[in-house]
C-alpha cells in the first residue's frame, strides 16, 4: 500500500521513534509545530477519524493509553495537546489516521 505512515511503521522510511508497542507507533514530526511534537499512529492502516467503527475503536483507546505513557516518559506534567486533523477541510495531509501530541509551549485556544 502506498501509505507514508505505513512505510514509516515498517521501517522502510526512517523516523525518530518516541514510543512503540504492539498496536501503536509514535515518532517525531519532521516539521515540528511545538518544541515537543510527536505523531502517534495505529500500526493498522485506518484512513481517518471518519472511518472509526465499533470494530476498530479499541485502537483509539490504545492511542490514548500511549499518549498518557509518553507524557509520563517525556515529563509533560505541565500539559499537552492532542490533535487529530480529519479530511481536507480538517487539514489532514496523510491518509493514515494520526494524532499530534504537542507540548512544551503555551498552546493558544481556540487554535487558528
Ligand atoms: P496532518 O497535516 O495530516 O495532520 O499531519 C501530517 C504530519 O506529518 C505533519 O505534521 C508533517 O509534518 C508530518 N510528516 C509528513 N511527512 C513526514 C515524514 O516523512 N516524516 C515525519 N516524521 N513526519 C512527516
Ligand atoms: Zn497507512
List the helices and strands and how they pair.
Elements: H1 4-10, E1 17-20, E2 24-28, E3 36-42, H2 58-73, E4 80-83, H3 87-90, E5 99-103
Antiparallel strand pairs: 1-2, 2-3, 3-5, 4-5
The structure holds guanosine-5'-monophosphate and zinc ion.
Number of strands: 5
Mean pLDDT: 97
Residue fraction in strands: 15-25%
Poorly predicted sequence stretches spanning 5 or more consecutive residues: none
Q: Percent of residues in helical segments?
A: 10-25%
User: What is the overall silhouette?
Assistant: globular
Strand order of the largest sheet: 1-2-3-5-4
How would you characterize the overall build of this protein?
The protein has three helices and five strands, in the order H-E-E-E-H-E-H-E. It is 24% helix and 22% strand. The longest helix is centred in the middle third of the chain and has 16 residues, at 58-73. The protein has a five-stranded antiparallel sheet with strand order 1-2-3-5-4, with helices on one face. The relative contact order is 0.22. With 112 residues, it is α+β, with helices and mostly antiparallel strands. The protein is globular. Bound molecules: guanosine-5'-monophosphate (5GP) and zinc ion (ZN).
Summarize the structure.
By secondary structure, the protein is α+β, with helices and mostly antiparallel strands. The protein has helices at 4-10, 58-73, 87-90; strands spanning 17-20, 24-28, 36-42, 80-83, 99-103.
Amino acid at each position: 500500500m502506498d501509505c507514508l505512515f505505513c512505510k514509516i511503521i515498517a521501517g522502510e522510511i526512517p523516523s525518530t521513534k518516541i514510543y512503540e508497542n504492539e498496536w501503536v507507533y509514535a515518532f517525531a514530526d519532521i516539521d515540528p509545530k511545538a518544541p515537543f511534537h510527536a505523531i502517534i499512529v495505529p500500526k493498522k492502516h485506518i484512513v481517518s477519524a471518519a472511518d472509526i467503527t465499533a470494530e476498530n475503536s479499541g485502537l483509539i483507546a490504545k492511542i490514548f493509553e500511549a499518549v498518557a505513557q509518553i507524557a509520563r516518559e517525556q515529563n509533560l506534567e505541565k500539559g499537552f495537546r492532542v490533535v487529530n486533523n480529519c479530511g481536507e477541510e480538517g487539514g489532514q495531509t496523510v491518509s493514515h489516521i494520526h494524532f499530534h501530541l504537542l507540548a512544551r509551549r503555551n498552546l493558544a485556544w481556540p487554535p487558528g
